[in-house]
Amino acid sequence: MATVRAASRLLSKRVLANMKAVPAAAVQGSRNFHFSIYGKKKSAKVADDISTQYPVVDHEFDAVVVGAGGAGLRAAFGLSEAGFNTACVTKLFPTRSHTVAAQGGINAALGNMEEDDWRWHFYDTVKGSDWLGDQDAIHYMTEQAPAAVVELENFGMPFSRTEEGKIYQRAFGGQSLKYGKGGQAHRCCCVADRTGHSLLHTLYGRSLRYDTSYFVEYFALDLLMENGECKGVIALCMEDGSIHRFRAQNTVIATGGYGRTYFSCTSAHTSTGDGNAMVTRAGLPCQDLEFVQFHPTGIYGAGCLITEGCRGEGGILINSEGERFMERYAPNAKDLASRDVVSRSMTIEIREGRGVGPDKDHVYLQLHHLPPQQLATRLPGISETAMIFAGVDVTKEPIPVLPTVHYNMGGIPTNYKGQVIDHINGKDKVIPGLYACGEAACASVHGANRLGANSLLDLVVFGRACALTIAEEHKPGEKLSPLKPSAGEESVANLDKLRFANGNLRTSEIRLNMQKTMQNHAAVFRTGSVLKEGCDKMADVYQSMEKIKTFDRGIVWNTDLVESLELQNLMLNAVQTINGAEQRKESRGAHAREDFKDRIDEYDYSKPLEGQQKKPFEQHWRKHTMSYVDPKTGKVTLRYRPVIDSSLNEQDCAHVPPAIRSY
Amino acid sequence: MSFLRLCVSASRRVVSRTQAVGSVFSGSSRSASGALKDQEPLKKAKTPQGRFDAAEKSGDVLEKFPDDVNPKTKEKGGPRGPEPTRYGDWERKGRCVDF
């Protein structure tokens, strides 16, 4: 505390960008508070309106982007290109964002391998989303896709090429020609096997051309909202513990997904749903959080996914009794059943006590009965993968696997332009000043299920869309609307409370409780009783946050504090996910329930429509879930919003009427 | 002259004595560590720099195509090794990265 007071005393002397040496006596042995601004030299002012204990610095920008992954970078330099004074606030260095791990491809109807049309891509995406996707947003994304990929290529992204020099496209991700009737489409462009890595580095390199101000390793705490308008962001500088308020007319949230709410996920430790939580604390809804995409065979502990090809080549899943349990659940297809059947079967085995390991919480994938030569030729590299991530020799021991979270289809609700919306009195209302893009947003193009290679496309198209919308509606250098001087004091109070928390449960213990509860109750196997039990347990875990104990009382690079803040964010996402899943009494896309196995739409689309009564809005489930949370009690309120069924231009691209989804 | 010869012989004796001393010491260390010093040269510590002195590691499991052109599909600059999407998901080294 003494060092912090010394720092604030230093600040009150307005010793900022020029680092003048302060006499040692005045400093009392503490580090000089050093703050410098990169990019445009707008003066940042020190404020002591909200706290005299923490150094608070105010900044003014035209636009602030939270998050520097694929979507955040695209939005940031799109805005800088349009002349806006932009700040990019990120808790990680841009090239460390989780986009770098996306090794799959990016879909676009370029038509290089065969004749192609973006309207067929539109149809495939609408069908893949199980008719929960907003068709205007999907229209926008698939129509912009070729232009987006060509733009990336012009930025220097080294796509793989055909002999003629055009971008090579391969078949992937449920894509078809002629509205599903023309066979497999080849639409997936890639950069060797590191598309996401290359995309992120290309975008970062491109963004350095423009003078975006990067605030790297600044953890965004909350939105600054006033009268229902978003006026900026308040963030913690992790390096020196100072608080920064970024005032801006436009705020773009691109913070990524929240895989870390589950015990087993492929996401980085930093995927903690910060954007979703910031929006929730501001009293705004999150959309469709119960739709979480799982993969059946993820390595226990590490979270890397083992390809289905292992089972295709003869690998089998076994339980603690050594039994090939898939024979009971899918007598014909056995281990080659579809992913959701396999995931559910694995979960049922674990629930019934036939799991393996000390906690009996996973199963084994056995490959050692196959000849090692065959493994090496058909699946090169698998022994390396198994050894590095699971520590097993794949020719002698089985690999421990369990269903793993890969992607979050839900997020902050936006319209097709990227503006955040709320659903009030039956109409969508745009929240002024707030935009969202990327995995954090739910536009919603993925609906109930994401198709492969569509996610990277989503990032660049909607990142650009946010920048274009802001450029359309605002001008650079606009005067900022007034903000209460005390804006953000709750965030600082929360920070202070966490920093000196002295309960009896560690952050890591509470986090593990939450992850285990979510993995056991809100994973692949969902039924009413299991979900209800999970909701109650999650409510208890949420309350246990009051007893949190942190150990590091410092202010410089306090990772204990930052992890506790991230845990608060994860908790908000988790309660919304499990409550949304419990209320949704149907099976659609990635949300599959054992007690309600069918999709419940306004008509029964498996039968002819004539003579059918249209079900009222309250009785069918083809609608988006909008969830609100009271942060103090953890109580979740759910409302519903209709799906947008019309495309942007019915003459150009007719909307796809709902039908039964079968491949 | 004689003084010089004395000096030389003295230094030679000193050298030989130090040599003898040296041989005594090295002899004792040789006997202590056995055949180690005889057969293998001193190993560099396992530092990042020391890795460059180690034998060239065998190539990556996924070999590069000649000229980076996939002979079957004629794709230039594409993924190495077998086709990643052959099982319906995007697979690399046994890991699924997209599906």
Automatic annotation (TrEMBL), chain A:
CC cofactor note: Flavinylated by SdhE, about 5% flavinylation occurs in the absence of SdhE.
Compartment annotation: Mitochondrion inner membrane
Pfam families: FAD_binding_2, Succ_DH_flav_C
Catalytic activity field: (R)-malate + a quinone = enol-oxaloacetate + a quinol; a quinone + succinate = fumarate + a quinol; a ubiquinone + succinate = a ubiquinol + fumarate; (S)-malate + a quinone = enol-oxaloacetate + a quinol
Signal peptide: none
Positions annotated to bind substrate: 295, 307, 406, 450
Protein name (Swiss-Prot/TrEMBL): Succinate dehydrogenase [ubiquinone] flavoprotein subunit, mitochondrial
Organism for this UniProt entry: Poecilia latipinna (sailfin molly)
From TrEMBL, chain B:
Biased composition (Basic and acidic residues): 53-78, 86-99
Residue ranges crossing the lipid bilayer per the database entry: none
Biased composition (Low complexity): 23-35
One GO term of the biological process aspect: mitochondrial respiratory chain complex II assembly
Short name of one Pfam family: DUF1674
Family: Belongs to the SDHAF4 family.
Ranges where the record places region Disordered: 23-99
Domain of life: Eukaryota
Protein name from the UniProt record: Succinate dehydrogenase assembly factor 4, mitochondrial
GO cellular component, one term: mitochondrion
